[in-house]
Design a protein that fits this description.
InterPro entries: CoA-transferase_III_domain, CoA-Trfase_fam_III, CoA-Trfase_III_dom3_sf, CoA-Trfase_III_dom_1_sf. This is CoA transferase. Keywords: Transferase. The protein has two domains: 271 residues, Crotonobetainyl-coa:carnitine coa-transferase, domain 1 (Rossmann fold, 3-Layer(aba) Sandwich); 83 residues, formyl-coa transferase, domain 3. 38% of the residues lie in helices and 16% in strands. The chain has a six-stranded parallel sheet, with helices on both faces. Strands 9-10-11 form a three-stranded antiparallel sheet, with helices on one face. Helix 1 crosses helix 7 and helix 7 packs across helix 8. The protein is built from 17 helices and 13 strands. The chain is elongated, with a radius of gyration of 25 Å. By secondary structure, the chain is α/β, with parallel strands linked by helices.
Length: 412
């Protein structure tokens, strides 16, 4: 890989990334972090849509904007960027050649969007029967909504997540809310990675690849988890209850003398310990609260009683007392507090990488910790077309003169 060290778990795997924005790039970044050679194909001149999704922008050593958005930087580490004009037949030919050398293709065009270029699964399968081809769309390859564009915010609403998120009706600030990050895109990227690795494992036995059809809506509904089964099993439509848990009490935020904290009691023993820490050990034996089903039934009464006590002390004092009692408890941190947290710092969650336009770029580390093939940070998120010549030589053995001619014709 032309001087890029690669000794990860997926060393030798070639991924052609035709996706943009977040769900697809999140999946391909994870594969890249695990050692795959990921080549990101972008439009000449503009590239991935998220390159323009700023501010904030990465600053150079003089504090000037480099034009690289923080949004783009979050999902494109360890990749190589190639610019190719897909609207031109010669550009389509180049991508086909790259696909013939790839193990995996990831794309998130609209349904049928790549067939006009001969870059759909059926076409590329003829060139490379071992290809694992992952398509990510809002609603999947089939169904009445298949042709619609799908965005995370839209899917959070349609998929039920927003109906569960937000303050309860009749309370201050009531109403549905989206999650503060594009969580459906992220979880779809994770499901895509799992599916790709499963398809590769099967290919080792069968010798052939396959098509993966992933829909944001499907993923969002799957990730409703217990809330979905609560409805399917119980027949009752869940409602918004703020930060509380539908099945466990007490499991929510509580006011303190200087802010708020979270108490997350998962069993009756922890509840008894909580009561002792609150100075009310008798609550643990009260028939109204002695078991979780009874606490759920008497939720409002119990929560009011706990709130009446937690407001008497500062958050830090309560957290220390709860930790000593073995009660799961913690603060609600802002992001500056997150990255200042000693646990976060000890795990090296923030990393820095060199960047061609800046002294360095700060990123969030991959959370996977592997003993024998750890994640390696080989390549900062690439600038647009940074590796075009390198990849065409590496994957296609193309001569430098031919690459220069393609550049002259504005194909790259």
């Amino acid at each position: 890989m032309n001087g890029i060290p690669n000794q990860g778990a997926l060393d030798g795997l070639r991924v052609l990334d035709l996706s943009r924005v977040l769900a697809g790039p999140w999946a391909s970044q994870l594969l890249a972090d695990l050692g795959a050679d990921v080549v990101k194909v972008e439009r000449p001149g503009t590239g991935d849509d998220t390159r323009a999704w700023g501010p904030p922008w990465l600053s150079d050593e003089d504090g000037e904007s480099t034009g690289e958005s923080a949004y783009y930087l979050c999902a494109n580490r360890n990749k190589r960027s190639v610019t190719i004009d897909l609207s031109e037949p010669d550009g389509q030919r180049l991508v086909k050649e790259l696909a013939s050398k790839a193990d995996v293709v990831v794309e998130n065009f609209k349904v049928g969007g790549l067939s006009q270029y001969g870059l759909d699964y059926a076409s590329l399968k003829e060139l490379n029967p071992r290809l694992v081809y992952c398509s990510i769309t809002g609603f999947g390859q089939t169904g009445p909504y298949a042709a619609r564009a799908g965005y995370d915010f839209l899917i959070q609403g349609m998929g039920g997540l927003m109906s569960l998120t937000g303050r309860a009706d009749g309370t201050e600030g009531e109403g549905p809310l989206k999650v503060g990050v594009a969580l459906t895109d992220i979880t779809t990227g994770l499901y895509a990675t799992v599916a790709i690795l499963a398809a590769l494992a099967r290919r080792e036995r069968s010798g052939i690849g396959q098509h993966i059809d992933l829909a944001l809506l499907d993923v969002q509904i799957a990730c409703l988890a217990n809330q979905a089964t609560n409805y399917i099993v119980g027949g009752v439509v869940p409602r918004r209850i703020g930060n509380a848990h539908p099945n466990i009490v007490p499991y929510q935020d509580f006011p303190t003398a200087d802010g708020h904290m979270i108490i997350a009691v998962g069993n009756d023993s922890q509840f008894a310990s909580l009561c002792t820490a609150l100075g009310k050990p008798e609550w643990g034996k009260d028939e109204r609260f002695a078991s979780n089903p009874r606490r759920v039934k008497n939720r409002n009464e119990l929560i009011a009683m706990i709130c009446g006590i937690t407001v008497s002390r500062a958050t830090g004092d309560w957290i220390a007392a709860m930790e000593a009692a073995g009660v799961p408890c913690g603060p609600i941190n802002n992001l500056d507090q997150v990255f200042e947290d000693p646990q976060v710092q000890s795990r090296n969650v923030r990393i820095e990488m060199s960047h061609p336009l800046a002294k360095h770029v700060a990123l969030v580390a991959n959370p996977i910790r592997m003993s024998e093939s750890p994640v390696q940070y080989r390549q900062s998120p690439p600038t647009l077309g940074q590796h075009t010549g390198e990849v065409l030589q590496d994957w296609l053995d193309m001569a430098a003169a031919d690459i220069d001619e393609l550049r002259r014709t504005k194909l790259l």
